Amino acid sequence: QVQLAESGGGLVQVGDSLRLSCAASARTLSPYVIAWFRQAPGEERDFVGAIRWSSGGTVYSEFAKGRFTITKDNAKNTVYLQIWSLKPEDTAVYYCAAGQVGYYDDLNLPSQYDIWGQGTQVTVSS
To answer: 98: exposed, middle or buried (C-beta count within 10 Å: 0-12, 13-18, 19+)?
Structure first.
């Protein structure tokens, strides 16, 4: 069973940058899509982006394009979410998730992912 653990969140100021990490414990991640979601208090859990481990292909939500980058380190079994120029509206708990999402299936839906990390809090102060 895959286990995920996020880290790297914290209290930052507007304009700062952060790199969040999602460390995976698994024999192999080849069958998986690894996604990032974020959830602010009282809000829905929103899709940020995802990476298909086998190919390295990525997809991003509209709000994430330009400021968010997802990468992976094969040797470390880790996926990263780089966030540039943080804004107050980026304040949320950030989760990584893993699922065996079919190539032609939607990968922006939380229901596609059955393995979740505990989340890491990102707070952007003005």
So the answer is: buried
Give the pLDDT band (50/70/90) at residue 36.
very high
Dihedral sign from CA coordinates of 6, 8, 9, 14: negative
Decide: helix, strand or coil at residue 86: coil
CA 22 – CA 28 distance, rounded (Å): 15
Q: Please state, in angstroms and rounded to a whole number, the distance separating the CA atoms of residues 53 and 99.
A: 11
Q: Could you write out the DSSP letters of every residue in 90-115? A: G-EEEEEEEE---TTS--S-GGG--E
- At position 57, the amino acid (one-letter code) is G
Q: Is 33 helix (H, G, I), strand (E, B) or coil?
A: strand
